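Response to reviewer comment R2.3. The reviewers asked that we include at least one raw input/output pair. We reproduce the pair for NERD domain-containing protein here without editing.
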Amino acid sequence: MWVEILCGLIVYKLFRRFFVDDDDLLEVESSDTTALFNVANRLEKLYGGKAYVGLRIPDADTGSRQNVDIVLVTKGEIVVISVKNFSGLVTISGDGSWVCENGKHKAQHFPDPVEEAKKQASVLESYLEQRGVALPEGYLSYKVVLPNPKFWTFHLSNFPSEVITYDQWVQLKPEPKGMFSGWIKGAFHGGKKDMQESIHEKLNFTLSTAPMWDRLELKGNKYVLGEFLEFKGKEEDIISLRNIKRSKVSRLVVQKTSMLGLAHSKLQVMYSPRDYRSEGASGSEWKEANVRSSTEVLFQPENSRKVRKFKLSSIISMSLTA
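Raw output as returned:
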């Protein structure tokens, strides 16, 4: 009997090793970060422009950094968007906090997301001014998006106008004048077109060089924001990857694998040298490293004290901030 149990455990471990992706993939299936990127991608498709995800804006008042989920920049506006992936019944309490009940856990209380988004917009505006981008009145707005299909509430009318519930989210349609054209207070009309284009250009440059979280893109359309720490694996693989540091590399892509037996044996890692003058690199600038598929990435996710390990075989790409 004990021999059968032992053999079963060995078979199970072999199966997990060869046929199942890294356990972390299973844990981020309902990730708030993945919901965040899905929202950003849809906003870009609906309204054009550029969505900057996972910003860490310096807050002069607190001396810390303010996390901003998404900043959407279009030709006529800039919108700070807070994404709350709430699942279950959501109500607003008397003190303005939000209460989420989903039947699986005790009711969870959250600070007012609208006030948080308002604060983030204020910090962002101050940061932009410090970097020489002064926004006209009404050009910057904020919204809270609730994209989870399991979100529901009894009193929809209790939510502020800045909130986009799930039902509203799935019904959003492109508007010719921008995402929230009703918010723009006539800042740009007639002869101010050149000024508008100038601000748009400055905004994109400033936000593209603003502090951000590092980003992992995993198989299965999953994302993790946080901080890349180091690689772990065989010594010769670590030597091959020694040039991949945030001061030197902006992005790496796990491009293809070679097979040996039942498991991946080798991965081809393509990485782009950092160029502070422009975004990305041309095809001729990419460099290559070949390592074992067992090589791991140590990553500290945002809002987590636990360092996580991700196998390179589960990673599509990783973006590093300077």
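The chain has two domains: 11-172+180-209, 214-319. The CA atoms of residues 146 and 307 lie 28 Å apart. Further pairs are available on request from the corresponding author.
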